[in-house]
Specification:
Length: about 325
């Protein structure tokens, strides 16, 4: 997720038992012009493995070069973003627009797959709009091109983030495809993640926003899948996680300001559903001094974890993004 799944957060989520992590989208054309910002986004730590770096773009040559760069950097796989609905990206033919021209898509995917030894994977939506939900056809093109798996966010490009992810549709794509299919969309609880995984027969599920309000979701889902009970996190679990995140952010961002900017949004997301969270969020976004910010966070979670209202986990939030 753009602006969210950077290296320190991916490391944290690995520690929280996520099996695979993927970077935010990086412009292949930005890499071509040696944009330092784009290269910075490709940095990862060994702790993240299995880790994929995600690219987007509309220029075949740039995409192929980006694959080679990512292989050289040592990532485990390269993921192509074909789900981004943002006008600036699709207007040029990138993101979700790539699924509209299957012959061209086939050439691009083949060129990417042939250019590297690491797996090439793709992330798509169900289709462009309700009239053209062509994920089955896209998955076939991908399979023929040698792509390793297809992750599907169960909304169309036109839906952006409105409505609900259509898991029946995802299940239908899975039933008709010879390539591994990963289902994605609205998995906000471990119960829902395991239920969708089992009901629709997908090869894996991908959790995005759910991890922001419940960073324990990966571990809880894994336990549930194994038929084990999971314990709800207690204050110490939150404090341990927050302390871990602070160290990771301080390692990754050279200035206190950089750390604070990143810390604020995560702390605000984690706090949803806890009593006093609105007040806490206000504080978080006004406190400038790092020790005070983390101190407030520790006090808040120590005090309120036991009183959380878990219904908040299923509420809509963050209704805009790049996939
Ligand atoms: C703020 C934000 C940024 C996102 N950025 C990306 C991205 O860079 N690449 C991508 O494939 N999907 C991106 N997405 C989409 C998510 O990966 C996911 O497909 C979508 O949010 C639905 O799944 P969820 O309900 O589990 O979050 C983003 C979503 C949000 C909310």
């Amino acid at each position: 997720m753009a602006g969210i799944t950077n290296s320190p957060f991916r490391r944290l989520m690995k520690r929280m038992n996520s099996s695979v992590v993927v970077s935010e989208l990086v412009s292949s054309t930005g890499l071509e012009y040696m944009g330092q910002k784009s290269f910075d986004l490709l940095k990862f730590h060994d702790e993240e493995r299995v880790v994929g770096l995600q690219i987007f773009g509309d220029d075949r040559e740039h995409l192929v070069k980006a694959c080679r760069t990512i292989e050289k950097l040592g990532a485990d796989f390269v993921d192509l973003n074909m789900g981004c609905p943002v006008p600036k990206v699709v207007k040029r033919g990138g993101g979700a627009a790539m699924c509209r021209d299957l012959p061209e898509l086939s050439k691009t995917l083949r060129a990417m797959v042939e250019s590297v030894k690491i797996p090439v994977t793709i992330k798509i939506r169900t289709g462009w709009d309700s009239e053209t939900r062509n994920a089955v056809e896209v998955a076939r093109v991908a399979a023929d091109a040698g792509v390793a798996w297809v992750a599907i966010h169960g909304r169309t490009r036109a839906q952006a983030y409105t409505g609900e992810a259509d898991w029946d549709f995802i299940g239908n794509v899975k039933a008709k495809s010879s390539i591994p299919i990963i289902g994605n969309g609205d998995l906000t609880t471990p119960e829902k993640s395991v239920e969708r995984f089992k009901t629709y027969g997908v090869d894996a599920v991908l959790i995005g926003r759910g991890a922001l309000r419940n960073p324990f979701i990966f571990d809880q889902s894994a336990k549930k899948l194994r038929g084990e009970d999971y314990a709800l996190p207690v204050a110490e679990d939150y404090l341990e996680m927050i302390d871990s995140q602070r160290v990771l952010l301080e390692e990754s961002f050279p200035t206190a300001k950089g750390v604070t900017i990143h810390a604020r949004k995560f702390l605000a997301w984690y706090s949803a559903g806890f009593p006093g969270s609105a007040e806490f969020r206000k504080k978080v976004f006004t406190l400038e001094e790092s020790d005070r910010l983390w101190g407030e966070a520790r006090d808040f979670f120590a005090e309120s974890v036991a009183k959380r209202d878990y219904r908040f986990l299923s509420e809509d939030f963050l209704m805009g993004g790049h996939g």
